Amino acid sequence: WPAYAPLIHAINTLKKERNAVILAHNYMTPEIFHGVGDIMGDSLALAQKAAETDADVIVQAGVHFMAETAKILSPEKTVLIPDMRAGCSLAASITGEDVALIKKKYPDLPIVTYVNTSADVKAESDVCCTSGNAVQVVEWAAREWGTDTVIMIPDEYLARNVAANTDIRILSWKGACEVHERFTAEDVDALREAHPGVIVLTHPESPASVVKAADFAGSTAAMAAWVRDNKPAKAVLLTECSMSDNVSVGQAETQFIRPCNLCPHMKRISLQNIYDALRYNRHAVEVDPELARRAKVSLDRMLALPR
Ligand code: 13P
Ligand code: SF4
């Protein structure tokens, strides 16, 4: 059985010595999330808090685009990611050159870009969004640009799910999250049959048919809040597996049912490599300053919207 306590103690000691904070996404395993996380939450909360912290060092317990976002928002800080290979299928689905071509084809339409993208993609975009504010950002962009059509990249499923909640017409891209695209409406039907009364929650990166069949869809923070507020007797979180592990802590009223899917990128982060990151100052995330300046415009527009 892994000995978590000595590593948790060593990490918490190193954090104090280095004036460091650990940003832990909701998909981190519980020993990371509950054991060493300082700022926990969804992509939106992590971006907001990365911009506000006065720590000298940020360790991103999450994936590369999150660390890059933290570096763009806090260029003077050391931003570390414990494993450089922690990528994302959405971020890998599109490049800055792709966005430049889209812009050339549709020069009058705003480009709303999911934060699950690289800095060069953000730099070519007009405004960022997360799953927690996507409808708000799309409606803001349509108003600002005086248009009824918005380009939203790169998650095709998120774009469709946003389109179902707004009158704005949305053009999208063919990216998908490898965790959420695998759920089906048949999974939801089978769960309801096997577990009568079960409440099904999912993420808007899932196909529209899954969102339609579920009881609730929202960002990871919104799913956690829904379960905490409504305390269902039985719930299934059709998302990454660590979600229900983390939400179940302190929620004895709810029986959490599987299935779930693992994100291989999130799962590259461990207590051991978080310790190594702080101890050996690795792996520092750097963004070219001019690229960061342009990407920050898109992030700042999102962060300036009312919370
Ligand atoms: P949120 O935490 O913003 O809902 O994002 C989910 C996700 O897949 C992040 O990689
Ligand atoms: Fe990317 Fe999906 Fe993994 Fe999030 S869960 S990092 S969107 S592949």
From TrEMBL:
Sorted UniProt keywords: 4Fe-4S, Iron, Iron-sulfur, Metal-binding, Pyridine nucleotide biosynthesis, Transferase
Cofactor(s) essential for the protein: [4Fe-4S] cluster
GO MF annotation list: transferase activity
UniProt pathway annotation: Cofactor biosynthesis; NAD(+) biosynthesis; quinolinate from iminoaspartate: step 1/1
EC number assigned by the record: 2.5.1.72
Regions crossing the membrane: none
Domain of life: Bacteria
Protein name: Quinolinate synthase
Native organism: Hyphobacterium marinum
